[in-house]
Structure formats: C-alpha cells, structure tokens
C-alpha cells in the first residue's frame, strides 16, 4: 500500500512530501485509518531540538483524525467506516494505565517519542525501500494513512467536521483537560492562563464553559483579543505588577494558574498571583532550571506538571465534541487548514505565531 507522507529526514531540514509504503495491514489490536486531517503541534516541531533522541528519518504527526479502513480483528471495538480521533499511545497494562492515567504510562516516552515498540520497526518504508522510524505517538499521521493501536482511536459522531478534530487528541485535549480534569474547575472558580496559544486558548474555552472567571496573559494583542472573545479577561504579559493585576481581577488571587510558556519569570508571577492554597500547573517542558523566588510557594501554594491534560482520551474527547456541538467549545475558530504539501509553510506560520493551530489535509 502506497500513499503520500511528510518525512523529516534531518533535524535542521525541511519536511519532504514523499510516497511511502506500508508493508502490511493491521495486526491484532490495530486499525488502519485514512487520515482526513492532522494538527501540527509544537511537540512535532520540538523533535528538531531533541538532540537526536527521536529517530530520523520519520513520519511525525500525532493529532490525526480519519476514517477506519480496516481492523485487526473484532477485539478492537471498531469497524470499517467509523470516524475516529487519534490520541497518544500507552501500554494499557502498567499501574498508571490501570489507574485511568494513561498519560503517565510507564512506557510513555518509549512509545510516543523514542522509538515505539519493536514490532513497529520498518513497517513504513520510503520509495527506495529504506525504513522510516517507528510510529510517532502511535500514529505518524502526517500521511494519507496511519496504522494505530485501537486504544489510540476514539470513535466520534460522523456528523462532526472530521478533518478539524485531530487537535482534540493532544493540544486542545491538554489545555481543556488541565482545566476540567486536573483542576476540576467549576462555577465561580478563578483561573489565570499564561500563554494564549492553542493549549492556553483551549483552557480558556473550557474554563468559560465551566463557569470560571479567567484571566489570559500573553504578549501578542491578537492572541489576547481571541482570549477575550472566548470569555477571558485579557492582560498583557508586558504589564508591570502582573500578580497585583491578577489579584484585582480575581478578587484577591486566582485559585488556579496554568502556564503554557515555560518562562521562569512568568511562572514566578503565576505563583504570586495565586491565593493561599492555590495550584499552578505546568504543561510546557522546561528547557532550563526553574529558580523559584522566595515566598512563591508560601501559604499552601503548590506546583505540578500536567501531561496530556490528565485525560483518558476516550472520555474527554467526546465531552469536548459535545461542548462544541452546544456552541461552548469553539475550537474550530483557532484552526487554519493547509494541504499536506504545504507543511513547511504551516510550520513557519506556527513558529511565527501567524496561526494558532495549523491542520494538514492529506487529500487536498
């Protein structure tokens, strides 16, 4: 089986759209999915800075959505024709997975970032017959088709705009999940979101849907305008006295803060913006040491990392699509679509902030 895919061959090189081959169909517990659309996430682009830890050449992409073409046995729970959103991989057997915390799977890094399972090797090959790296996040969905473990695939209503749903499997899942799962935000709660990109704006939408008072902090006026459109109080990151401004907007301090920036100064400001016993969640990977200023963790404040929104994708993705259908989670307003052949343009627009969430369409 041959189809187009975007291949990254060098950490500092462009993507090249090539014909690739799939050596075999789905094995037991797998499904073959025809990709309708795949979000481009900053985690895909972080491979360039991974110091060689993620193997190349590879087909990346981990926010895919599409139609099931074939299944590896009835035990998958899916059948041909099902519309699915694809999410991250997990082993399904470790303590984290059995405790309904698949984002903290013992094998998360190996399965999603650094090589997958041994049996995945060489199932994708390029036109010359050379092997491409094992499945990225169990998907490698910058392609016309993806071969995925069935537990990665979440069935969705076929009436939904399938090509746009892929980011619900990671970026939007992370922001919304942090609010709805990690913090369990409810009516009247107060939240400050630092960074109004795809993850931060998904958090804003989820918090508004939950009835919270939300402050959004960003240095780009156009991102703040989007946050305000989705129900947040906008606050420029360049403003002096950020904790005091947040305290005024939240009647004494926020109960929760979500940082998507990995900026040490903003993280310290976020901690100072919290009321006593407040909680700060970090979703971005820190690239350096995080020096905490004196007093930032006083009075019961806490800080923790949140992976994939603490989500069970099969539960949260249907919740988010239901909110979208009710007009309460308008994630599609953040999306700009590109043909797969324009992946390098999409990467540039993502890195420069011209677009919040690019989605690549293989068939266009």
Count helical runs: 10
Q: What is the CATH third-level topology name of the largest domain? A: Quinone Oxidoreductase, Chain A, domain 1
Give Rg in angstroms.
20 Å
Proportion in β-strands: 25-35%
CATH architecture designation of the largest domain:
Alpha-Beta Complex
CATH superfamily of the largest domain: Medium-chain alcohol dehydrogenases, catalytic domain
Tell me the helix content: 10-25%
CATH class of the largest domain: Alpha Beta
DSSP E strands, number: 17
Order of helices and strands: EEEHEEEHHEEEHEHEHEHEHEEHEHE
Multimerization status: single chain
Mean pLDDT across residues = 93
Largest sheet: 7 strands, mixed
Shape: globular
Structural class comes to alpha/beta
Tally of discrete structural domains: 2
Poorly predicted ranges: none
Distance, first to last CA: 19 Å
Give the arrangement of secondary structure elements:
Layout: E1 2-8, E2 15-22, E3 30-39, H1 42-45, E4 58-59, E5 64-71, E6 83-86, H2 95-98, H3 108-112, E7 124-125, E8 145-149, E9 153-155, H4 171-182, E10 190-194, H5 198-210, E11 213-218, H6 221-229, E12 233-236, H7 242-249, E13 254-259, H8 264-273, E14 274-282, E15 302-305, H9 313-325, E16 335-339, H10 343-351, E17 357-361
Parallel strand pairs: 10-11, 10-13, 11-12, 13-14, 14-15, 16-17
Antiparallel strand pairs: 1-2, 1-4, 2-7, 3-5, 3-8, 3-17, 5-6, 6-9
Q: Which characteristics define this entry?
A:
single chain, alpha/beta, Quinone Oxidoreductase, Chain A, domain 1, seven-stranded mixed beta sheet
């Amino acid at each position: 089986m041959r189809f187009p895919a975007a291949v990254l061959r060098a950490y500092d090189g462009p993507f090249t759209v090539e014909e690739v081959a799939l050596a075999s169909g789905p094995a037991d517990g797998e499904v073959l999915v025809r990709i309708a659309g795949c979000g481009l996430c900053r985690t895909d682009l972080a491979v360039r800075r991974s110091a060689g830890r993620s193997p190349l050449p590879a087909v990346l992409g981990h926010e895919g959505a599409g139609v099931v073409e074939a299944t590896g046995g009835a035990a998958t729970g899916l059948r041909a024709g099902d519309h699915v959103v694809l999410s991250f991989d997990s082993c399904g057997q470790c303590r984290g997975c059995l405790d309904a915390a698949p984002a903290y799977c013992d094998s998360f890094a190996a399965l999603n970032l650094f090589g997958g399972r041994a049996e995945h090797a060489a199932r994708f090959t390029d036109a010359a017959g050379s092997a491409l790296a094992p499945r990225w996040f169990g998907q490698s969905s910058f392609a016309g088709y993806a071969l995925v473990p069935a537990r990665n695939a979440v069935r969705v209503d076929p009436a939904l705009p399938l090509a746009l749903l892929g980011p619900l499997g990671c970026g939007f899942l992370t922001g919304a999940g942090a609010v709805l799962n990690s913090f369990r935000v409810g009516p009247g709660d107060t939240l400050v979101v630092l960074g109004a990109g795809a993850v931060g704006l998904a958090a804003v939408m989820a918090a508004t849907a939950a009835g919270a008072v939300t402050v959004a902090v960003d240095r780009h006026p156009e991102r703040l305008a989007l946050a305000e459109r989705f129900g947040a109080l906008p606050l420029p990151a360049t403003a002096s006295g950020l904790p005091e401004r947040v305290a005024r907007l939240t009647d004494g301090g926020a109960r929760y803060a979500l940082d998507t920036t990995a900026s040490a100064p903003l993280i310290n400001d976020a901690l100072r913006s919290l009321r006593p016993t407040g909680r700060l969640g970090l979703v971005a990977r820190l690239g350096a040491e995080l020096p905490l200023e004196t007093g930032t963790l006083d009075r019961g404040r806490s800080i923790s990392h949140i992976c994939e929104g603490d989500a069970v994708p099969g539960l949260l993705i249907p919740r988010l699509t239901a909110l979208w259908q009710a007009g309460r989670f308008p994630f599609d307003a953040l999306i700009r679509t590109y043909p797969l052949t324009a992946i390098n343009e999409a990467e540039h627009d993502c890195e420069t902030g011209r677009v919040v969430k690019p989605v690549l369409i293989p068939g266009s």
